[in-house]
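Extended Data, panel c. Modelled sequence:
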Amino acid sequence: MIRVLIADDHALVRRGLQQVLHQAPGVSVVGEASDGWKVLEMLRADAPDLIMLDLSMPGPNGVDLVKRIKSLVPQVPILVVSMHAEGQIASRIIKAGASGYLTKDNEPETLIAAIRQVASGKHFIDPRLATELVFSSSLVNSAVPHSLLSDREFGIFMAIARGRSINDIALELHLSAKTVSTHKARLMQKMGIQNISELVLYASEQGLLV
């Protein structure tokens, strides 16, 4: 039996995933979490066989949460199930330690196949992102400014693009507001962006806010 923890901040999504997994022989849902802190709390109490993880949750999220999970329970594989169909995001998540990446518009059969493959110790990449990931890992795409950012800078970039304040980001990442502001200034300089409006527009045009 594959014991799965579902982590997503939308109750309807969690309910839908539960229904899909309930129909899959040999798979059971052993817990739900709606934010990053709850995920870490539940893992300290009882580690599942696999974590199905959304990227955009309150608290620690994205690359930061993946790294925290792998530090806490390195033996537990992570299957990211996200609405972001962007190779740069998937690449960062896999490099951070996730074993699989799947977009939410896939069929239930693909999700079940991904769970079984990741739980068996293998990797699974959304077929529609596989080619893009191959090229992004072998080529430096200087035409995409956000590819120049470190994981920390990219996480702060995404949080700002989604409307989070500096203080909120600092609280979530356990950093000082001054440190977050420094990262913000550095990432904007790297990307050649002058203000927040440009940053949000860029993220939207790149499909990062889907």
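The CA atoms of residues 159 and 165 lie 8 Å apart. This feature is highlighted in the accompanying rendering.
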